[in-house]
């Protein structure tokens, strides 16, 4: 009995000691490691302790944060307003656009006749001078037609010589008949009073009358022959004039077998080959005019009211970057088409994008002043333009 009691007390004593040891270790394990004074965690913990210990400090911190946020918002809004104001005011001092391009006159060289191309004297992108031979159409049919017309004219001119001889003969016959008619009339005039006085027989008077009538008939025939000869001459002269006109036309056609450059320029997109069939008034060769270069700059409608013809401008060509070229305003378009149609009498400038509507833009024509000789312009190349008022 005593042994059991002492054993129980010993067990309870050991359990109590174990419990106390565990309780002593728990606070030691739960306690955090001390923070270094310079660490960010220490600063945050200090702010938390300060905020927990002072509600007024929390309110002051919130007010300060709100004030800073308001200042930032006001600063951003002021910057935006200033930028918008400067953008709006800039339109009264200068106008800039990157919607510009280089252009010139593209001349479609069309033959005035139809025929087979027998020679092409140019290559693609070649520079040519005015009057230079570009290509030739077969001249044989036109040369044969010209020879035929010239032969007909020679024949008609020979007939004119015959007609003129006939007219000369008719004039001579007319003059002779007129003289005989005058003589017969005079004889009749003298015989009539003498026959009335009884000094000339009635038979002699009748003979004089018959001769006078015969002379008048011969004169009428001579006049008719001369009129007919003159009509024949006039008809043949008209024939010669017609043939001469036909010769001139065929000669013009023969001249048109040579395709000549109408201006100085450069050949572009040449597809003409020997053996091709040339069709009247259908372009065969494209030529970019070397003396019609200009810049089309599309400006917003709110800016063109300040632009005057002859005002200076500055152009940047993308083919020659970092070089600014002086130009002048040649003209400002007085109208644009609001619909994209096949008619080209008014320029069409796209007013919208896929999702936003832009201001209407009008083409302003700029002409380069004293361009450098080493600059080679290309039709359709991009450009940028700046106009300072």
Write a compact overview of the structure shown.
The protein has 389 residues and is of the alpha+beta class. 49% of the residues lie in helices and 20% in strands. The chain folds into three domains: 2-82, no CATH class; 91-106 and 287-388, Elongation Factor Tu (Ef-tu), domain 3; 140-255.
Describe this structure in words.
There is one protein chain. The protein is α+β, with helices and mostly antiparallel strands. The chain folds into three domains: 2-82, no CATH class; 91-106 and 287-388, Beta Barrel (Elongation Factor Tu (Ef-tu), domain 3); 140-255. It is built from five helices and 14 strands. The chain has helices at residues 2-30, 40-53, 55-90, 140-197, 202-255; strands spanning 94-103, 106-109, 115-120, 127-128, 133-137, 258-260, 265-268, 277-278, 285-289, 294-300, 312-317, 324-332, 361-368, 382-388. The strands form three sheets. Strands 1-10-13-12-11-14 form a six-stranded antiparallel β-barrel. Strand 11 and strand 12 form a beta hairpin. The protein is elongated, with a radius of gyration of 57 Å.
Keywords, separated by commas or semicolons:
alpha+beta, Elongation Factor Tu (Ef-tu), domain 3, 49% helix, four-stranded antiparallel β-sheet
- Mean pLDDT figure: 81
- CATH structural architecture of the largest domain: Beta Barrel
Major sheet characteristics? 6 strands, antiparallel, barrel
CATH topology of the largest domain: Elongation Factor Tu (Ef-tu), domain 3
What is the CA-atom radius of gyration, in angstroms?
A: 57 Å
């Amino acid at each position: 009995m005593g042994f059991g009691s002492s054993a129980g007390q010993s067990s309870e004593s050991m359990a109590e000691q174990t419990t106390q040891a565990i309780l002593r270790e728990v606070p030691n394990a739960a306690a955090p490691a001390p923070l270094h004074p310079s660490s960010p965690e220490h600063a945050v913990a200090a702010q938390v302790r300060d905020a927990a210990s002072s509600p007024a400090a929390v309110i002051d911190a919130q007010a300060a944060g709100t004030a800073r946020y308001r200042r930032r918002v006001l600063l951003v809004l002021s910057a935006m307003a200033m930028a918008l104001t400067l953008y709006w005011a800039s339109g009264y001092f200068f106008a800039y656009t990157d919607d510009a391009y280089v252009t010139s006159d593209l001349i479609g060289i069309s033959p005035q006749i139809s025929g087979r191309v027998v020679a092409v004297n140019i290559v693609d992108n070649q520079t040519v001078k005015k009057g230079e031979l570009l290509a030739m159409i077969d001249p044989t049919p036109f040369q044969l037609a010209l020879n035929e017309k010239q032969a007909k004219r020679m024949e008609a001119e020979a007939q004119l010589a015959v007609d003129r001889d006939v007219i000369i003969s008719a004039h001579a016959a007319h003059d002779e008949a007129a003289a005989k008619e005058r003589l017969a009339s005079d004889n009749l005039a003298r015989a009539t009073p003498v026959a009335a006085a009884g000094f000339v027989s009635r038979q002699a008077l009748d003979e004089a009358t018959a001769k006078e009538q015969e002379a008048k008939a011969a004169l009428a025939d001579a006049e008719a022959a001369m009129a007919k000869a003159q009509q024949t001459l006039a008809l043949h002269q008209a024939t010669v004039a017609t043939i001469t006109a036909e010769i001139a036309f065929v000669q013009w056609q023969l001249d048109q077998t040579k395709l000549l450059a109408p201006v100085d320029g450069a050949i572009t997109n040449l597809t003409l080959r020997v053996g091709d069939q040339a069709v009247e008034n259908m372009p065969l060769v494209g030529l970019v005019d070397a003396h019609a270069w200009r810049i089309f700059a599309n400006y917003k409608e709110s800016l063109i009211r300040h632009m005057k013809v002859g005002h200076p401008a500055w152009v940047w060509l993308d083919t020659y970057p970092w070089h600014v070229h002086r130009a002048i305003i040649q003209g400002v378009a007085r109208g644009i088409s609001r619909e994209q149609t096949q008619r080209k009498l008014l320029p069409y400038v796209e007013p919208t994008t896929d999702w936003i509507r832009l201001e209407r833009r009008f083409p302003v024509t700029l002409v380069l002043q004293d361009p450098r000789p080493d600059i080679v312009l290309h039709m359709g190349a991009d450009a940028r333009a700046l106009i300072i008022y």
